[in-house]
Amino acid sequence: xxxxxxxxxxxxxxxxxxxxxxxxxxxxxxxxxxxxxxxxxxxxxxxxxxxxxxxxxxxxxxxxxxxxxxxxxxxxxxxxxxxxxxxxxxxxxxxxxxxxxxxxxxxxxxxxxxxxxxxxxxxxxxxxxxxxxxxxxxxxxxxxxxxxxxxxxxxxxxxxxxxxxxxxxxxxxxxxxxxxxxxxxxxxxxxxxxxxxxxxxxxxxxxxxxxxxxxxxxxxxxxxxxxxxxxxxxxxxxxxxxxxxxxxxxxxxxxxxxxxxxxxxxxxxxxxxxxxxxxxxxxxxxxxxxxxxxxxxxxxxxxxxxxxxxxxxxxxxxxxxxxxxxxxxxxxxxxxxxxxxxxxxxxxxxxxxxxxxxxxxxxxxxxxxxxxxxxxxxxxxxxxxxxxxxxxxxxxxxxxxxxxx
Length: 405
Ligand SMILES: Cc1cc2nc3c(=O)[nH]c(=O)nc-3n(C[C@H](O)[C@H](O)[C@H](O)COP(=O)(O)OP(=O)(O)OC[C@H]3O[C@@H](n4cnc5c(N)ncnc54)[C@H](O)[C@@H]3O)c2cc1C
Description:
Blueprint: E1 2-10, H1 14-23, E2 30-33, E3 50-53, H2 55-64, H3 67-73, E4 76-78, E5 80-85, E6 91-95, E7 105-109, H4 110-121, E8 127-130, E9 135-140, E10 145-149, E11 154-162, H5 169-173, E12 180-194, E13 201-207, E14 210-216, E15 222-230, H6 231-239, H7 242-253, E16 260-262, E17 267-275, E18 280-281, E19 284-286, E20 292-293, H8 301-321, H9 329-358, H10 362-377, H11 379-389
Parallel strand pairs: 1-2, 1-11, 2-8, 5-13, 11-19
Antiparallel strand pairs: 3-7, 4-7, 5-6, 9-10, 10-11, 12-15, 12-16, 12-17, 13-14, 14-15, 17-20, 18-19
Helix pairs in contact: 1-4, 1-8, 3-4, 8-9
């Protein structure tokens, strides 16, 4: 049994989901496939995985009609960010009011994002969602890509999009290399209950072993933590009893939110920086973690992926309107040129931060503390950093541009 599509997206995660929604109602017949069954949200418990969502990503959710579904579930606005060096006096604060915005970002559970995107994509008749399905083989011919599924079905596509994460099978099938630098760190994530209200403030302490972030959830006394630490320390933290872990957390973070306790399980993720040599080949395009991975300290990974998805949707729709071949390198390189430079900057910046704050040398420590203090005092520079991190600047795809507000 063979089904013909214009576009097959492998990976129905957050980035694949947004890409599908951006193509919803358009001129293409699209299939989106995933090996995993759609995750149910175990409300009222918080998902251990959350993402800091930029204002640009929020604008994209709104533009594709998925924002209301997230609001209906659970979102948490961030009104202030505080970042400090635990080994010094350096500190920087960002405030939404200074930017003339109601908030700087949103903390949203990954399962909420995914559920709202899936709900939206199911409303489009040109999108077919196949899950769970397993791929047995991907083959590339001169004028199409062919995906054989283990259940015997075959999908044929003019364009195959890899939205299948850091270990992308689509990237492998296209023989695209993605050199990765193991950061020898792991991020531990967990939901934490705090004695004092978080006040919609995202806090991040740079410890010598890596950054520790407290991200505010919709309940004033709950935060999601992302504790990135050198591998040996992370393994030690994961092996601890809950009580020992909370003690270590309290010592590392201090008293800003009063007494802390765990409100769920811990999970650890190894960290690597990577950037695929190419984002496209004939009949192939890569988006999200399939194309690049960054350190979570800046909360940018999936936000970059959403911008990839919006840029690719824009390039494909415009090529189709000019009757150009959407699987041709000529068209796909427009997407690559648009996104690769921007993503590479973030791969380098987050790698640089990890090095700068991991350095034990007293000279470097003094320099970074002075840098934080000076930047904190320089309103125009702060404004620039904030606009960039919120995704309000840069070469944005139309879907990410906000209506004047
Ligand atoms: C601890 C941590 C915290 C983070 N915090 C943030 C943050 O605050 N903000 C932010 O912007 N980013 C953050 N990130 C990064 C973010 O999580 C990733 O960038 C994002 O999940 C990438 O999404 P994706 O859809 O590209 O890939 P994935 O989330 O990896 O999804 C890939 C999908 O493809 C499917 N798939 C894989 N292989 C196949 C196959 N062969 N066939 C079919 N389906 C397949 C999978 O089942 C999955 O659904 C964080 C990362 C970590 C580790």
